[in-house]
Amino acid sequence: MNFICTTYVVDSRPSYRYRVMGNRYTPRLSGDSVHSRMGNDNTLTLIFLHAAGMFKECFEPTIDIFFSGYSSDVRKSPSIGEIWSIECPNHGQSAVLNADDISVYSPDTWQIHEYADAVYAYLQGRPGGYDLSKRDLVLVGHSMGGFVIPFLIQMEPKLKFNTIVLADPVISPRCRMMERIKKVCIQAALSRKDNWTSCAEAREYLDINKVLKIWTSGMKDLFIKHAIVPFKDSRPPHLEEMVTLACSKKHEISIYTTSADDDIAHVKLASLYASKTPVHLLYERTPHPLIGTVQAVLHQCHGFKPTSAQSIRSGHMFFQMDPDEAATLILNALRFKKNHEEVHSVARL
């Protein structure tokens, strides 16, 4: 691996009710080299936010590609000094850490907006003593992580971001089509297996499931390591190695429901597009037909457009299927230079 990873927990209870975990990734260089890069005014700090059902380590294959360039010619790419990946409190290792609090505050349901609150608490909480408010921040949100960004950027006191990358979120006004999308997502979650007799059986399931088997082998290994936890309920001795998903089906379904029922995210998205912050959209080239019917809202939202838009060849879960494409798309967004002579005729909110 071309990176060093350190995990930090921000505990701001009771002002925020859950502990928030995040990983800090730095290139595998000498301490002096890293310190020198972080002192450079042009150095960026990337903040990754994951999709529903994922975990903070799911970006590691892409992060490894970013930092592999540090051993060659870094002049061709934006200078990335560090990358943080912040975990939703009911996902991955965070679900274990917060199990007691979740059982009190939200045992059966989970609002998608909770992730925005968690990220804000983390960025404000000086994880590991690092004052991220002084960094040149780039937000990269995938799916659920992208959905919460329009909420996150409006929280007070506001955080300043250099650039935002929305990686294939589904953001739309409430409509009949969103109801159909919600039903499809819920049915998909219900149909997936979520308990296994062992991690080995869970790994075999990833290899045969028609949706998951196309992930890279490395991503499947990361999923088993970070998204699978010991089964909580009592079980017979011969099933003592039984495991389950860190993010429960109830919570996953609740996330899909609250996002589909939300009717203000698209208004906040328009405000984001209208701001001075560059916003780059990554969208699936050949989406599910239902998703395709609402995708236009991402490209033209109340008269406002993203700074740039790139299509994703490998599909919605492109971080899991093709980390090389993910790295390329994000670097393209960071390299983007808007033609200041181009004038977009847009409405005013």
From TrEMBL:
Xref: SUPFAM superfamilies: alpha/beta-Hydrolases (SSF53474)
Database matches in InterPro entries: AB_hydrolase_1 (IPR000073), AB_hydrolase_fold (IPR029058)
Residues covered by the AB hydrolase-1 domain: 46-177
Domain of life: Eukaryota
Transmembrane segments: none
Record's protein name: AB hydrolase-1 domain-containing protein
